[in-house]
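I have a small job for you when you get a moment. Can you supply me with one protein entry, sequence and fold together? It will help me judge whether the discrete encoding reads sensibly. Write everything out right here, beneath this request:
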Amino acid sequence: LSYLPLLQGLLCTVEDGSVTDLCIEVLIQLTTQLKLEQTIHCLLDECHKELCNTPSMRGSLATLTLLGKLVDAIPALADELVMEHGNLMEHLLRGLVYPSEGVQASVCYLYGKLYSSPMAAEILSGHFREKLCPLFLSILDGAQTKELQFNCLGLLRQLLKYDLFVSMIMNKSALAESAESIAGPSGETSLPLVLKKLLLSRDETLQVASAHCITAVLVHSPVKHASAFIHADIPEFLFEHLSSSSEVLIWSSYNCLILLAEEPLFFSKCHTVYGIEAVVRSLQGNLKMNNTELHKQGLLLFAEILTRQPEEIKLFTNSAMCRDASRALQEAVSSPVLEVATEAVKAISAFLRKDHQSTPPVQYRELQALLEAMLSRCAEFSQSPLNRRPLGHASSRDSEKAILRRGRFLLSTLEGFRNACRLAMEFQSEPSAQENPFTAPSAKKEDTLEAFSEFLLSACDCLCIPMVMRHSEQATHPALMEVFLSILHSLFVIVPHMKEKFSKKLAASSFIRLTLELKARFRSGPSYSALNQVCSSFLFYMCLNLLSVPEKTEPLPQEELSEVSELLQHGLPQISSRIPESLAFLSDRQYVEGAARQKQYCILLIFYLAYVHEDRFVSEAELSVALQSFLLSMQNQGERPPLVVFRASIYLLAVCQDGDCTLDEAVVGAIRKFLENIPDLCLVYTHHPLLLNFFLSYPELMSRFGHHILELWFSWEESSYEELDDVPSAGEPMLPTSLASLFQILRSSPSILLILLDLIYSSPVDIAHKVLIILRTFLRRNEDVQVSGLIRGHFLLILKHLLVEHGASPSGASRNLPLLLSLLSLVQLRNESKQELDSMAMKLLHQVSTLCGKCSPTDVDILQPSFNFLYWSLHQTTPSSQKRAAAVLLSSTALIELLEKLLALTLTEADSPRTALLCSAWLLTTSFSAQQYDGNLQVHQTLSVELDQVLKALSFPKKKAALLSASILCFLRTALQQSFSSALVALVPSGAQPLPGPKDTNLAPLRISQVLSLVIGLQNLLVQKDPLLSQACVGCLEALLDYLHVRSPDIALHVASQPWNRFLLFTLLDAGENSFLRPDILRLMTLFVRYQSSNILSHEEVGHILQGVTLADLSTLSNTTLQALHSFFLQIQSKGLLADHSMAQTLQASLEGLLPSAPLGQALPQDMLCLGGVAISLSHIRD
């Protein structure tokens, strides 16, 4: 204690500053380390005495400094000084007015330490109000030295911690400003102006301290105090400081501006318009730094400005600044720091306002890039793995917190996306915002509202929906779902041309179920009313869109659609029950009143739309029971449901019905009564295999509505099924599901085929064609189903009816008659070979021949399938039936006359669409001639053919008419075999003929020139190497040589030995390996061997051929080839050309073992073909 007076005396007397500082340091150390109250009190008393006894405040500087540092070291001394040394304040006030900034700085420092104690501050509140406040502000305003400035600001920071002193200072400042504005400068100053002065200083520390003080004031009440700073234009200078390189100053400025933004005056004085560029540039610069807090504060300020900016004051005055802002937000939202990205998402949400984006041109591509960045960041965060701990409750809590964070971030993202959708909706009414007005007319317009709207739809589909669905699997947040559904609802308006397609996709993705579950789960409590309203609105528009363009059913008339719209609008908000409750309500059999019935309608329509789009969230069995109760209730009350409701009921009953489960007769009866009161069945028809099965499963419904239902079914089938007619060699293609179901029904109820026959006859051509293809396919794939008698009998009735009503002109009876005839041909082809023709078949032959006789050559559509039927009927039965059938057909003189007319058109119309019909006419004529000749049948009408025209057609064949040439050759072969003596066919000359030569007499009616011309024609046709044509050529050449051999053997040998034949033979043999095993070549060689044409085929060459035969695998050859080879072998054997007898015996044994057991003339099932629409028998053309 003895040292204290000594040290204090030294402190007061010494003038060396360094010694003074050392003395103060020693005193502080002694006081704090001894911790003796007596010592402290002694020191305080000495200081107080020194202040009282020192005449000049300059001499008190050391004492004031000591007191300030002592209170700083021992804060409790502040209360003691104020309470026990109260008059000390007067000395401090003297020091403040002393003209020495060093003294003033020490006083301010001591004041600051005193006011740091709440108790001392409360005691000194009166002192501050009455004496210190104005004096202090003026000293702060006039301070020149850094020490005084810092100490004043330190005192101010302490004062601003208390609401009382803030009010005092700001009130004093307000009075000073008002006095100055009225009477001019008053000498008093205000805090805002003082702090503004410090902001304008070039000292960064003072600028930061000033900003901190502004913040300290505003924290107490921005509403009360912000206006004073705004009037002092402080925001202007704060915005300027945002371009500083000091992160602390920028951060401080952000804080001030955030608080100032709570005052509307901040915006009305257009400070934001002035400062928005500084904010954007500051953000752009700061995002390149690593200061996360700075990023967050900057984005928070930007979001506040964007949110609070009045709509009438445009924030972005040019599109370039708007673009820069968008890019800065895009960079911010991509930040890997979640807190920064979160603030960026909030800023983006505020940025997407019409008044912020309406500066032309609207930067749609920039907005799209911004939204893509926001959604990508959200998707990245939502897909990041949860940090799960192995065990314990803590891991569960951490997981829940992580899910909650994800939910909050997703909600913010969706709110931003919703604002983008709202922006697009608002711009729809702005013509200037539809597209960039500065785009050249010829340029591709991508930066348009339409493109932006489609992007929103695509982004929602690809990003928003998957994110929300994944999150909903973990947690369901009502607020999030409310925003999400409102987005979906708005997209219906934004992209109206896609609303139906989008609705279908949503329905197929179980959004009907999702919405109903949300309504049921959050149905109680006012807090969920907004969610329920959004759910109802979304469900209403989605259902209405689905009903406007329904799936596979007729669209509703506008009047009915309006009624359904009103029904859904009133009914959907009332539906908030779970599925079992809704089913129970639907099953109510008691008397149902109007409002309840309307609610039932709504429930049914929702279930219907869900089932149509494969969202089967209701048990089929339970739904079926409920529907039956509903329909019976309607019947009992004498009500008729609206058409759309009944359509829904029928469809749901059909798809809910099990294979073995059948409806009660009462329900089926009720359905039939409802259907009978409907003007057109298409109004309640929905295209589905199970609905078809439903109508065809109940005789009561099938008998009354089967025809119409099947017609509707085929009219709604999108495929034409042409591919089913093109049967690949690998086998039948897989049937579509719908057809497989129909085929199953047809197998179980073949009588339905009769309805299909009626459809072919009476339906529009496109529908009839589909039915024909399907019937053809069914008959081809189901050969075990015996329906030919059923079909032929029904067809006979149709044909009789047609001939009675339209006998004079059957071609005008029905455009579908050719389709029926085509089916009849198929049924005939399906019959087994060599089957006796029954009475029904004979009647059909008569009726079809009568029909043909009433047609003209131009009625190709009718004649072609008719000729096919007649031809197959002749060639697919036993010889006795063939004779009977030919007799029936030959009795039709009109048919024979028609054939004559058609044959006469051969040369003129060989390349026309009637080529196929001409082929059938020649083949049919050939068959008639052969049957009449063999059976010596009565001829009622002869058929004249010009021989010259026939030969000319063979000598000058048309392109791509191989089948026609083969048909004519078949006719000519038959005529040659009959030696031109047919009673049916009369070969007549064409005009004036030259006098016959000596050699012509024996060949009549042929002339030698015609024979040679025919041989040349046959050789030319053989060179074409068409298999069918070659067979016909060889057959005709065989008949010709036989004819010549009988009439003039020399000419026959001459024809067979022509050198040209050798060239022809080797041309054919050059077609490929083992080409000599082709049946046409074998028959040709047999012919040359028979007529001993060694100059054509020598003995050595025959030996080489036989050697090649022995090396070939004969088991792979067709029956036709084996028969031709056997004939060749027998011919060379008979001519003695077999030198190697062992080889001959081996070959003969092999051939006899492989030859079929059936007689050569018998037609096999694969013999009957339809080639290019022409019915042919391969054996008929070949043999």
